[in-house]
Amino acid sequence: MSRAVAQKESRLSIRASEPEKALLRQAAQARHMNTSQFVLQASLDAARAILVDQTEFRLPPEQWKAFCDRLDEPAKSIPALRKLFSEEEPYHA
Asked: CA-CA 20 to 30 A from 35: which of 20, 45, 50, 67?
């Protein structure tokens, strides 16, 4: 399988104890990668997993319909929020 390799533009350095480094090296070998490739891939996978939790959510079809129905309902007037948003901002840049 051929894959284009992106040009690396900057270096990322991390500090690790010898046991941590040995563990990373062993895991990298298990994945047939060098340690840098393994650490980068594992870090990117973790970053994507964290960010997807903040940008995407999934619901079963019936819950998705209920969610959309609630979004389509007319907005409710909440007096406390109206009062809050009518107040002058305490800080101006």
From this structure: 50
User: pTM score, two decimals?
Assistant: 0.55
d(CA 23, CA 51): 26
Answer whether 67's CB lies under 8 Å from 58's CB: no
Q: What digits encode the pLDDT tens for the residues 44-85?
A: 999 999 998 888 888 999 999 999 999 999 999 999 999 998
One-letter amino acid identity for 87?
A: E
Closest to 6 in 3D by CA, of 41, 32, 56? 41
* Residue 35: partners with Cβ closer than 8 Å, 6 or more residues away: 21, 24, 25, 28
Are the C-beta atoms of 37 and 5 separated by less than 8 Å? Answer: no
Which helix (DSSP H) or strand (DSSP E) does residue 30 occupy?
Answer: helix 18-30
What's the angle, vertex CA 83, arms to CA 82 and CA 84, rounded to 5? 95
